[in-house]
């Protein structure tokens, strides 16, 4: 069985395997590096994609994606906060970041006559696939097993996205085949350096996009992780951009020049060349010809100057401060004996930077820095060793986990630095209870967190564990949940419900590793809980919910992404309608007179603040006069104490008059878009059609206007059916499948 190791990097990817005389990069001796770059050429269809060196050499081809590892497992908000937009065509020419769904992240790739919105793992899958083809072509055999390396500081979503990429590339990679990059590097260094049993070793891995630092101890047969630190958005790419900033300042380049995709890549390549030379020389020439002004298309003078190492180190000082902070957090870990560290293993291309090496020497003055193994290939070589021999690596998890209570407050259950797999005696226990009668669908919400040197906790996006088919019990039945980490740093849990001797597992991402299907799963669980809690209802929203849940289950089984996105939208629409119905039901305690008054005043504010200003120029003079008179009359009624029903009748007359206007169907669309019970997706379609129709009416484009009116009338019929369905729904029991956390008295503040 042919097994290889893949170092899936931000800027470069390598494949290695173990030959008879030890591990070597494939092809043996050549050490060919595969740039982690994808070009969507699309000359002969959607499958026409170029990966690697050919894609990396493109300057003006467009539709080129680099550094996609920065996006793996990220939400749109995380990418925005981390400044990832700067790495993907800041001017939005042909590649840009877009929001998918509520908060998920996609890459919009646009070319002449064709565009596609891609998940980050789909782009990364192209790189993994190229690495596999590269190995099979060099070795003349089919790759049957693979180990892929990831930063030790990767969280669960990042690891899951890496597994998604491997599967999309046709490789069935288990969670155990994801190996921490520093651990892989230690395996590669061990036969070259020779470590004593129990000797602590620091691995400093500064690659193209991430910085990883770990302290590890070897017992001769395997490795144990003592502490892990790092920064997931700090790498050689950032150093390159610091050099580009120097060039932009010296050449006084305009922002538009820097934002242009072709210019940006030329500058970055020149910066990388200068940076690499400065690792071995005190000065280097920065030379970048061929820049073009994007508006005038005028060729600009070449950017050329002498760059000294001191200027570079001054520019990257903030980056080195971040490196130092991660290093110190790792060395300050209680399990680390700083004075006992005598060896530092240098890994990653950025580890060649002299200032980085000085920083490590200052932090550990008694340690020797090792680059006996090429820092660029060490991780791939170690992955090959692991794929071949599976040595024992005892891991720790750099993150902790907290459960969310009913007030969305986190309660810590698994601390950072927990050994994986978690020993039986160290399993965490959480006491919970069911929320509603007959509950058989359970969900527990977890948050990953990291602790700073000052003890402050930073929480990451939620992760959910779930179970179906639990024994039905009364509301408030006690459920004890046990949590631990398996050998791959995944959270595992089992639940023990009162009155049952069977332990029921709560499962996680493994059942639906792709982000889209995780979100669909969450929405499906919410819908199933609503169905369970409202079993007696057979009308309205509940009747609509049942077939939609069945469709969601089909989409989960088929893995049809288009179907999944459509069903997810429907489930969200129905959930929104349930929330609107609950608002109405909760208002039932108000008197009839006050309820009518509040509703009429709300509509008056809508007419005055939104509806009439939007359509004022499109209304007839008579329509405008009638609207002004009616609104004044309604306000006067309330001021003089007239019955609310009279004001309601006058408001109804105003509405009917506006609907009779020449653009009345457009007014009606906007009116219906704000009704309770109309989902926002449908409301936005109504508003969009009304906007288009109004513009066409102003231009006198009768054919287009007639087509839009027909579209609006169809949407209004759909909206009326949805609203009628919503009105037929009675009081709903609002249910979510999340278990209710039971707090101890001191936690409740009692």
Describe the structure concisely:
The protein is an alpha+beta fold. Among the domains are: about 5-85 and about 105-175, 2-Layer Sandwich (Nucleotidyltransferase, domain 5), CATH 3.30.420; about 400-510 and about 735-750, Sandwich (Substrate Binding Domain Of DNAk, Chain A, domain 1); about 590-730. A 7-stranded mixed β-sheet has the order 19-18-13-14-15-20-23, with helices on both faces. Strands 1, 2, 3, 4, 11 and 12 form a 6-stranded mixed β-sheet that branches.
The CATH class designation of the domain at 3-85 and 106-176 is Alpha Beta
The span between the termini is: 62 Å
Low-pLDDT parts are 745-750
CATH fold title of the domain at 3-85 and 106-176: Nucleotidyltransferase, domain 5
- Helix content, binned percent: 40-55%
Helix count? 21
Strand order of the largest sheet: 19-18-13-14-15-20-23
Task: List its traits.
750 residues, alpha+beta, Nucleotidyltransferase, domain 5, Substrate Binding Domain Of DNAk, Chain A, domain 1, 6-stranded mixed β-sheet, 30 strands, disordered C terminus
Give the arrangement of secondary structure elements.
Elements: E1 3-8, E2 12-19, E3 22-25, E4 34-35, E5 37-40, E6 49-51, H1 53-56, E7 64-66, H2 76-81, E8 95-100, E9 104-111, E10 114-118, H3 120-139, E11 145-150, H4 156-168, E12 178-180, H5 181-193, E13 200-206, E14 211-218, E15 222-231, H6 236-251, H7 255-259, H8 261-278, E16 283-288, E17 303-308, H9 309-315, H10 317-331, E18 343-347, H11 354-363, E19 368-370, H12 378-389, E20 392-397, E21 400-404, E22 410-414, E23 418-420, E24 428-433, E25 442-451, E26 457-467, E27 478-485, E28 491-497, E29 504-506, H13 515-533, H14 540-558, H15 561-586, H16 592-615, H17 621-639, H18 644-659, H19 664-672, H20 680-699, H21 702-728, E30 740-741
Parallel strand pairs: 1-11, 11-12, 13-18, 15-20, 18-19
Antiparallel strand pairs: 1-2, 2-3, 2-4, 5-6, 5-7, 8-9, 9-10, 13-14, 14-15, 16-17, 20-23, 21-22, 21-25, 24-27, 24-30, 25-26, 27-28, 28-29
């Amino acid at each position: 069985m042919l097994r290889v190791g893949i170092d899936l990097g931000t800027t470069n990817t390598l494949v290695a395997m173990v030959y008879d005389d030890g591990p070597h990069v494939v092809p043996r001796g050549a050490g060919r590096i595969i740039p982690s770059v994808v070009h969507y050429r699309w000359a002969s269809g959607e499958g026409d994609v170029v990966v690697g060196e050919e894609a990396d050499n493109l300057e003006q081809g467009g539709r080129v994606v680099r550094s996609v590892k920065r996006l793996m497992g990220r939400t749109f908000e995380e990418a925005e906060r981390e400044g990832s937009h700067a790495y993907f065509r800041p001017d939005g020419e042909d590649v840009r970041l877009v929001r998918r769904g509520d908060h998920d992240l996609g890459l919009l790739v646009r070319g002449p006559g064709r565009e596609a919105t891609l998940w980050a793992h789909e782009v990364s899958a192209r790189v993994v696939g190229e690495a596999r083809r590269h190995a099979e072509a060099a070795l003349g055999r089919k790759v049957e097993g693979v180990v892929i390396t990831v930063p030790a500081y990767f969280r669960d979503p990042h690891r899951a996205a890496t597994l998604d990429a491997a599967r999309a590339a046709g490789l069935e990679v288990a969670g155990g085949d994801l190996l921490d990059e520093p651990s892989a590097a230690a395996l590669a260094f061990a036969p070259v350096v020779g470590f004593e049993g129990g000797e602590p070793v620091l691995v400093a891995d500064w690659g193209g996009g991430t910085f990883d630092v770990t302290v590890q101890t070897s017992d001769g047969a395997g490795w144990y992780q003592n502490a892990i630190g790092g920064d997931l958005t700090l790498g050689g790419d950032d150093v390159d951009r610091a050099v580009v900033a120097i060039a932009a300042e010296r050449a006084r380049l305009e922002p538009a020049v820097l934002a242009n995709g072709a210019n940006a890549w030329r500058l970055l390549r020149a910066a990388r060349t200068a940076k690499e030379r400065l690792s071995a020389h005190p000065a280097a020439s920065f030379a970048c010809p061929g820049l073009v002004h994007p508006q005038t298309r005028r060729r600009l003078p070449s950017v050329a100057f002498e760059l000294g190492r001191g200027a570079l180190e001054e520019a990257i000082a903030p980056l080195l401060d971040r490196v130092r902070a991660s290093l110190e957090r790792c060395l300050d870990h209680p399990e680390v004996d700083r004075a006992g560290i005598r060896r530092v293993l240098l890994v990653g291309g950025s580890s060649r930077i002299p200032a980085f090496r000085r920083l490590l020497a200052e932090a550990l003055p008694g340690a020797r820095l090792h680059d006996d193994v090429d820092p660029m290939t060490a991780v791939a070589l170690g992955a090959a060793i692991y794929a071949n021999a599976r040595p024992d690596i005892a891991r720790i998890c750099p993150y902790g986990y907290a459960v969310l209570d009913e007030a969305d407050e986190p309660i810590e259950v698994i601390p950072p630095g927990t050994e994986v797999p978690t020993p039986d005696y160290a399993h965490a226990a959480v006491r919970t209870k069911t929320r509603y009668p007959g509950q058989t669908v359970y969900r527990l919400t977890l948050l990953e967190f990291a602790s700073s040197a000052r003890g402050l906790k930073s929480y990451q996006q939620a992760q959910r564990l779930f179970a179906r088919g639990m024994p039905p019990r009364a509301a408030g039945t006690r459920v004890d949940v046990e949590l631990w980490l398996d050998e791959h740093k995944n959270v595992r849990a089992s639940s023990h419900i009162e009155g049952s001797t069977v332990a029921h597992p709560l499962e996680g991402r493994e059942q639906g590793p792709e982000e889209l299907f995780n979100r669909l799963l969450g929405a499906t669980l919410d819908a199933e809980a609503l169905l369970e809690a409202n079993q007696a209802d057979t009308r309205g929203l509940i009747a609509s919910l049942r077939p939609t849940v069945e469709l969601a289950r089909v989409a989960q089984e088929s893995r049809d992404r288009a179907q999944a996105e459509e069903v997810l939208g429907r489930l969200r629409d129905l959930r929104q309608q349930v929330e609107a119905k609950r608002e109405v039901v909760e208002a039932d305690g108000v008197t009839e007179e006050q309820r009518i008054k509040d509703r009429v005043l709300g509509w008056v504010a809508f007419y005055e603040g939104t509806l009439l200003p939007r359509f004022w120029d499109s209304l007839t003079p008579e329509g405008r006069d009638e609207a002004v008179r009616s609104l004044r009359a309604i306000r006067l009624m309330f001021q003089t104490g007239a019955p609310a029903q009279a004001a309601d009748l006058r408001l109804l007359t105003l509405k009917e008059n506006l609907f009779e206007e020449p653009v009345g169907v457009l007014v009606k669309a906007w009116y219906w878009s704000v009704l309770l019970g109309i989902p926002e997706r449908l409301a936005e379609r109504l508003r969009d059609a009304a906007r288009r129709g109004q513009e066409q009416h102003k231009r006198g484009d009768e054919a287009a206007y007639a087509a839009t009116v027909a579209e609006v009338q169809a949407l209004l019929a759909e909206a009326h059916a949805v609203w009628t369905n919503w009105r037929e729904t009675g009081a709903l029991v609002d249910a979510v499948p999340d278990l209710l956390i039971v707090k101890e008295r001191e936690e409740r503040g009692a």
